């Protein structure tokens, strides 16, 4: 990792702001879109860029805002990757969010988030906190191939249940679903059953497939060659250089997804999930219904 002093930390408008404390990642997920060249990384992706002055910038930005709102992190780089163990920048930013009366939403794959569960609980009591957890692959062995340097899906489900015990709402990202790899009814149904059991508020899916861009595509195909011989040729033959790669079973999987979400009272449209994540009602602490 390497350290930088950055000029700003928050992006967004209209009552919701996002931030990335780190840039790059060490989880090693073979499908990661953040590797795409459009994001203009000037350093190796695993050489994580640390925005060393993020807490100071965040505090200054929040004190300048007239109305509290939700502050999100994790959209580009996981805020609980390995370096957070040492640096605790995510924790410091959460403390600043709490002290200034704002809400927080965190997107992660890591059980390290439980190290800050007391802070998340306090934010949820004073404003609102939503944890977003990515779940793609239920089988442990396959999960270890696709997401090699982070805890597996079953451990993430345990995290969701611990958050539920605290009354902290959760949203799951069921994406990406990789054609010919984890695009089975068994995989999707197993994850959704666990989501229902963990009291997940909503599940986000973008059409049961995968997106690939320059930079991301090359990394993904190299991983396919290592772990699934012949699979790259199958992808190229079916999808060419397409950006959107829907599963051949997308229609059936989407029907299963919508049915199971409806049966278990979970939000299933991205629009509804994002609305829940980003809205901070004035009387939120008195409106907890899950």
The global form is globular
| Through-space gap between termini | 40 Å
Question: Structural class of the secondary structure composition?
Answer: alpha/beta
Low-confidence stretches: 286-290
**Percentage of residues in strands:** 15-25%
Number of strands: 12
The Rg value, from CA coordinates, equals 19 Å
Average predicted local confidence, pLDDT: 96
Question: Count the helices. How many?
Answer: 11
Helix/strand order: EEEEEHEHHEHEHHEHEEHHEHH
Give a quick account of the main beta sheet: strands, pairing sense, barrel closure: 7 strands, mixed
Helix content: 25-40%
Quaternary status: single chain
Strand order, largest beta sheet:
2-3-6-7-8-9-10
Q: What is the strand and helix layout of this fold?
A:
Layout: E1 2-4, E2 11-13, E3 16-19, E4 22-23, E5 49-51, H1 54-63, E6 70-73, H2 84-87, H3 89-99, E7 103-108, H4 117-126, E8 129-134, H5 140-146, H6 153-165, E9 170-173, H7 185-197, E10 202-204, E11 209-211, H8 216-227, H9 231-239, E12 244-246, H10 250-263, H11 270-278
Parallel strand pairs: 1-5, 3-6, 6-7, 7-8, 8-9, 9-10
Antiparallel strand pairs: 2-3, 4-5, 11-12
Helix pairs in contact: 1-3, 3-4, 7-10
């Amino acid at each position: 990792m390497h350290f930088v002093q950055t000029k700003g930390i928050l992006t967004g408008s209209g009552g919701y702001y996002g931030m990335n404390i780190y840039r790059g990642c060490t989880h090693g997920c073979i499908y990661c879109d953040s590797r795409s060249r459009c994001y203009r990384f000037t350093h190796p992706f695993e050489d994580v860029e640390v925005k060393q002055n993020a807490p100071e910038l965040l505090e200054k930005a929040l004190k300048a805002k007239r109305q509290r709102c939700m502050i999100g992190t994790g959209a580009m780089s996981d805020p609980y990757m390995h370096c957070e163990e040492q640096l605790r920048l995510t924790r410091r930013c959460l403390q600043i969010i709490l002290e200034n009366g704002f809400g927080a939403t965190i997107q992660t794959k890591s059980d390290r988030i439980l190290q800050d569960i007391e802070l998340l609980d306090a934010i949820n009591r004073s404003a609102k906190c939503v944890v977003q957890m990515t779940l793609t692959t239920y089988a442990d062995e396959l999960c270890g191939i696709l997401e090699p340097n982070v805890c597996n899906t079953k451990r993430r489900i345990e995290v969701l249940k611990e958050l539920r015990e605290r009354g902290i709402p959760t949203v799951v990202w069921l994406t990406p679903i990789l054609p010919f790899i984890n695009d089975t009814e068994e995989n999707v149904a197993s994850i959704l059953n666990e989501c229902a059991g963990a009291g997940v508020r909503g599940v986000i899916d973008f059409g049961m497939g995968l997106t690939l861009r320059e930079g991301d595509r090359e990394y993904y195909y190299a991983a396919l060659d290592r772990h699934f011989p012949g699979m790259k040729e199958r992808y190229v033959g079916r999808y060419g250089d397409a950006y959107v790669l829907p599963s051949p079973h997308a229609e059936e999987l989407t029907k299963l997804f919508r049915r199971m979400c409806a049966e278990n009272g979970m939000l299933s449209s991205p629009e509804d999930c994002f609305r829940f994540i980003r809205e901070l009602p004035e009387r939120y602490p008195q409106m907890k219904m899950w």
